[in-house]
Amino acid sequence: MTSATQSQTQAAPRTLSPRAEQTVRVVAPIAVGVVALAIWQLLVTVGGVSEYLLPSPASILDELVEFAGPIGDAALITGTNALIGLVVGGVLAIGLAALASQWRAIDGMSAPIIAALAVVPIVALAPVLNSMFGADSQFGRQSIAALAAFVPVFLNTLRGLRQTRPVHRDLMRAYSATAGQGFRTVTLPTALPYLLTGVRIASSLAVISALVAEYFGGPRGGLGSAISTSAATSAYARAWAYVAASIALGLLFYVATALLERVVSRRVPNGSR
DSSP label at 233? Predict the structure, then answer.
C-alpha cells in the first residue's frame, strides 16, 4: 500500500452506525432544548430580566402544574377543532386533486382558487366567520383550520398524481386493466408519499390556524383564547404555560402524521418503481 493510499484511508470520515445515528437525532434536539431552557432561566434569575417581561421556565412550569386541568381542557378544544379541520380539509383537497389530475378544465379553474386560498389572511377571516356562525359555534374555527390544511394537501396530492410514468400507464393498458385498477395499482401508490407529506405539513398549519382563530371571538375555550385572556390580565407566566401547551399540541399532530407517513410508506409499495 502506497503512502498516498494510506493517507486517503486515514482521512476517510467515520460514519455512525444506524442505531447511533438515530440516537443522535433524538438526543441532539433534546440537549439543545435543555441548554436553551437553562440559559433562559439564568437570564431571568441571574441576568436580572424582569419576569413581567419574560417569565422564567420554573414559573411557567409551576403554572403548568397548577392549571393542568384547564390547560388540558383548552388543548382538547383546540385539538378537536384542528383535527376536524385537518380531516375535512384533507378529504376535500384529495378529492379535488383527483378531479384536477383527470380533467384539465377543472385543473385550470382550480388553480386561481387555490392561489387565492393560499393567501387568505386568517386574522381577517376569523372574526367574520365567528360572527356569521354565532358565539356558541366552533364551526368558524374548524373552517379556518380546514382552509389552512386544504392548500398543502391539494398541491402535494396533485403533484403526486402527476408522477405516474407514461410507460406504466401503457403497461396497464396492455394488461387490459380498467381505470380503477390502474389507479389503485400504479397512480395511488406513486402519489401516496406526496399525499402524506402534504398531510404532515397541513397538521401543523391546522393547529396554528385553530389557535389564531380562537383569538378573535367565538365561544370561550381553547388555547388561543386562554393565551389572550391570561395576557390581558397580566398573568404572563400562565399565558406562557398555555403557549407551551400549544407547542406540545402542534408537535403531537406533527409526530402523529409523521408516524402515519412512515407506517404507510413501509406497507404500500411505490408504484413508480
Answer: T
What's the mean per-residue pLDDT of the chain?
80
Residue 263 has pLDDT above 70, yes or no: yes
Residue 182 has a pLDDT of 57
186 or 189, greater pLDDT: 189
pTM of the model: 0.80
State yes or no: pLDDT of 31 exceeds 90.
no
Say if residues 215 and 228 touch (Cβ distance below 8 Å). Answer: yes
Q: Which three cell numbers stand for residue 23?
A: 440516537
| Rounded alpha-carbon distances, angstroms, from residue 120 to 144, 209, 219, 267 | 10, 12, 22, 37
DSSP string, the chain: --HHHHHHHHHSPP---HHHHHHHHHHHHHHHHHHHHHHHHHHHHTS---TTTS--HHHHHHHHHHTHHHHHHHHHHHHHHHHHHHHHHHHHHHHHHHHHHH-HHHHHHHHHHHHHHHT--HHHHHHHHHHHH-TT-SHHHHHHHHHHHHHHHHHHHHHHHT---HHHHHHHHHTT--HHHHIIIIIHHHHHHHHHHHHHHHHHHHHHHHHHHHTSSSSS-SHHHHHHHHHHTT-HHHHHHHHHHHHHHHHHHHHHHHHHHHHHHHHS--TT-
Q: What is the DSSP letter of 12?
A: S
Q: Which domains does the chain have, with CATH numbers?
A: 57-267 (1.10.3720.10)
Separation CA 57–CA 51 (nearest Å):
10
